[in-house]
Amino acid sequence: MAEHPNVELMRRGYAAFAAGDLDTVGSLMADDIVWHSPGNNPLSGEFKGKDEVFADFARLFDLTGGTFGQEIHDVVANDEHAVVMVDSKWDEPKPFQVRNVHIWHVAGGKVTEFWAYSEDQAGEDAALTP
Prior knowledge:
The chain is an alpha+beta fold. The chain has a single domain, classed as Nuclear Transport Factor 2, Chain: A, CATH 3.10.450. Helices cover about 35% and strands about 40% of the residues. It has four helices and six strands; from the N terminus they run H-H-E-E-H-E-E-E-E-H.
């Protein structure tokens, strides 16, 4: 059985992000995307629109000194949602590895909203706070 097209959309987006191909990442987002980053750290907040989301990505790259990485554990999707189970890690400002669940709303082949849930939000906050 073939995978749902939104599984492929997620895998393409995560691969592009890992390769630093932000043009492709942006092409997969709705212009009015809403991005929810939990916790109490420099990356936390709600970001509306591609400009705010990409500014948060820039903070992520800067804060982690380019050491941020993710490995997909699994992706499940239907016509409206996708869930990506992912291991995230970085070396700066403090080394850390954590399992996350990313939940996406998808419409018309574009991601419209994102939520991240951390297995250890307090640890993640501490590791991301210089």
